[in-house]
Design brief:
mainly alpha; Multidrug-efflux Transporter Regulator, Chain: A, Domain 2; about 70% helix; 3 strands; 2 domains; 5 helices; 3-stranded antiparallel sheet
Length: about 120
């Protein structure tokens, strides 16, 4: 039988913010581990309200799940996950820049062709 907090966490929509307790319960780790990860992974920055209450956005939840998967199931170290995430971030920015340049060039060509 589930208790109130467990049921509440399960009833939330996928895009809803999660508290640290809800997220810790969801991934099966204690809250202090999530707080520790916040000090080790610059990408993990949940919103903090008055009194220090943390709210994890959907992208934070996805990142926590990814970190948990890499550390717990794939055998990465903290340092290994840091390097992996940093590499993905720098690669992602480069690809986004190339895509934006392509879009800009395509728009410039369309304006030229249109006589504008």
């Amino acid at each position: 039988m589930t208790t109130g907090p467990e049921k509440g966490a399960l009833d939330k929509k996928p895009g809803a913010f999660r508290t640290i307790g809800e997220l810790a319960q969801e991934i099966g780790r204690p809250q202090h581990i999530l707080r520790y990860w916040e000090t080790r992974f610059a990408q993990l920055r949940p919103l903090q309200r008055a009194g220090g209450r943390r709210y994890y956005r959907p992208e934070d939840v996805a990142l926590v799940r990814r970190i948990d998967e890499l550390l717990g199931k794939e055998g990465y170290t903290i340092r290994g996950v840091q390097r992996l995430l940093a590499g993905e971030r720098s690669t992602g920015r480069k690809q986004s820049g190339e895509t934006l340049a392509d879009v800009r060039d395509a728009l410039a060509q369309a304006l030229k062709d249109d006589g504008g």
